[in-house]
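Practice problem 4.
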C-alpha cells in the first residue's frame, strides 16, 4: 500500500485524546483517570485518595505518595537509574535499600521505632509498603507513626548528604515535637484561643480624632 504525504505540511505533535489534536490540562487529566493505578505483578491497586485525606502536612503526604509509587530516591532506585554504584542500605550495608527497609526494617531504624513505642512483632511483618503506610497512618498512633517515618527518612538523608548523625534522644525529641504540632493542628479537641489587642494609631501625631471602622465610604469623608 502506497502512503502519500503532503509535502506542504510540516510535521507536528498530535494529542490523540483531544478531538482537535491539541493537548490541554483537562484532556491530560481525563486520560490519566482512564487508566487504573497498577502495582507489582499487574494487580490493580486501590485509590491513593486516602493519602491526601490524612491529617498530616503536605510534605508527609507527598512522601507517602512517592513511597506508594516506588519513587522515593533510595539507593536501590538510584542504582536502577545508574545514579549510584551500590544498592545496599546506607545505614547498615546489609540489604538492598528499599524505602520500607530504610525506614522500618534496618536495625538503625528499628532502634528508633522501639524507642518511641513500636516494638510489636506484627509491626515489622513483611508487607507491601502501601499497606504498611495505610494501616499505620489510620490507627490510634497515626501522628506518632507519620512523624517517626519522616524523621527516620530525614535522618538517613542527613547522614548521606551532610554526614550528620543525630542522637537517639534528639530524634525522639524531634518526633514528639512533630506529634505535638499534628495534635495542635488536626486534633478535634484542639482549641484556638484568640487574644485581643488594642491598637493605637495616630496620623503623624496631628491633633485630631481618628475613627477606625471595618468598612469603606463612597462619599467624601
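Answer key:
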Amino acid at each position: 500500500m502506497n502512503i502519500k504525504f503532503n509535502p506542504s505540511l510540516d510535521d507536528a505533535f498530535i494529542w490523540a485524546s483531544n478531538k482537535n489534536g491539541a493537548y490541554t490540562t483537562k484532556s491530560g487529566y481525563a486520560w490519566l483517570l482512564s487508566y487504573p493505578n497498577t502495582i507489582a505483578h499487574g494487580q490493580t491497586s486501590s485509590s491513593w485518595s486516602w493519602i491526601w485525606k490524612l491529617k498530616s502536612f503536605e510534605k508527609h503526604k507527598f512522601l507517602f505518595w512517592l513511597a506508594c509509587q516506588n519513587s522515593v530516591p533510595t539507593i536501590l532506585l538510584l542504582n536502577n537509574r545508574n545514579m549510584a554504584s551500590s544498592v545496599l542500605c546506607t545505614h547498615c550495608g546489609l540489604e538492598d535499600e528499599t524505602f520500607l527497609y530504610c525506614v522500618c526494617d534496618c536495625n538503625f531504624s528499628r532502634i528508633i521505632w522501639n524507642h518511641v513505642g513500636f516494638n510489636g512483632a506484627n509491626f515489622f511483618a513483611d508487607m507491601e509498603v502501601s499497606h504498611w503506610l495505610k494501616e499505620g497512618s489510620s490507627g490510634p498512633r497515626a501522628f506518632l507513626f507519620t512523624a517517626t517515618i519522616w524523621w527516620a527518612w530525614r535522618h538517613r538523608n542527613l547522614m548521606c548528604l551532610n554526614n550528620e548523625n543525630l542522637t537517639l534522644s534528639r530524634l525522639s525529641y524531634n518526633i514528639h515535637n512533630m506529634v505535638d504540632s499534628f495534635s495542635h493542628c488536626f486534633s478535634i479537641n484542639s482549641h484556638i484561643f484568640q487574644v485581643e489587642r488594642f491598637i493605637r494609631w495616630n496620623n503623624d501625631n496631628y491633633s485630631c480624632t481618628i475613627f477606625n471602622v471595618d468598612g469603606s465610604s463612597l462619599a467624601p469623608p
